[in-house]
Amino acid sequence: MLASSDYDLLRVHIFPAFADLDLDEITAPRVREWRTERLRATGAKTTVAKAYRLVKAIMETAVDDELISRNPCRIKGAGKESAAERRIATVAQVDALANAIGIRWRLMVYLGAYGPMRPEELAGLRRRDVDLDNLLIRVRVAEPERTNGKRAPGETKTDAGVRTVVLPAFLHKDLRRHLDWYAEKGPDGLLFIGEKGAAFRRTSFGRKWRHARAVVGLPDGFRFYDLRHTGHTLSTRSGATLKDTMVRAGQSSEKAAMIYQHSDDERQREVAAGLDDMVRSERAKHHKGAGPHHEQESSAG
pTM score, two decimals? Predict the structure, then answer.
């Protein structure tokens, strides 16, 4: 039984080229020509690789059933997907993004990077999830936004997504100020709300994010979600193991459950402390290199 994504590949990329041909008319030169045309027309290397694999699998079945003598899909490496390398921002760039996006949203940038929390997890945070004294945030739910603009509260992406995140100490001032100035009142009040007091919208925040990204000079392809990779990388550099990083980021899989042991709260505090040291050190280097005329918003440290 084909997955829905395979039906889309058949409908959009495969049937237009091959549906009217007999199996023995689908030759190696035709497959090469089809693949070249799809790459040129779409520029979507990953999608074309998936479509090629599907064609190859279909033709292999035809070989097994003795409908054709040889599989015409013989292009070496054509079915392999090479994922683009994830982008990472420097500590200075994260600070610059936080400053450029505006004081109401700067904590969201920091939690996206140093939490590191998913956008839908940030959308679901309430006041009661924040322990300011101990610098803890409890991620309980995710609230992705539907295409109609309404929230869809539900479970986190994985079971491991329900977690307690220990924040690095340098975020205490930003967290306290955000609670005082911008969070919705009451224990169930949203941590992040828009200027008009309603739950923030993806479209309006997206405009602010794109503006901040342009101000900082990061490429158009750098997404808010890529801040998580920054947090992963810095945590690892500060001494976190892979299992520590998985717990912190709320990542889980059946394979991971077999491999990675539990990373307890005390270990997460050590990771947060290491991250705090790393960010403070990088900020100090950046400030020193920027010279006496460099101005950094005092609340960033």
Answer: 0.62
